[in-house]
Amino acid sequence: MLNFKLPENDNKYEWTNHVKEKMVYYRISVSLIKRIVRFPKRKEEGVAPGTTAVMQPRGSAKTPQEIWVMYQLRHPKKSGFSTTYGKAVASEPKTRVISAWRYPGISPVGKKIPIPDEILQELESII
Fold first, then answer.
1. Are the C-beta atoms of residues 15 and 97 closer than 8 Å to each other?
2. Which pLDDT score is estimated for 64?
3. Alpha-carbon distances, residue 115 vs 26, 29, 62, 82 (angstroms)
4. What proportion of the chain, given as a percentage, has pLDDT over 90?
């Protein structure tokens, strides 16, 4: 059994149950997902409306692969302002991490994001 720490929601990130399952399945760590979201090698429009998919390459020249993360920026509601010393401070948007997967090989640039069929079916049921 792999000793694996699942992510918890905080003030910057929200994690869906779907992505938690995929992190265990593909053995992708919380820190790697955060790094891919902050410093993507490539950025594409996500398959669901209002989502973004980002990627970083992994593997070797002999066996290349890509790790993809699909997320959505969730802006706070106007009532979501917090006050600090009597001044209103706008909350930063949260990143809702929806899915993550490994893609074997190198995906084509600028085309539809290569999401495995079983993940697409699961995403359609949660989005």
1. yes
2. 93
3. 13, 19, 22, 38
4. 46
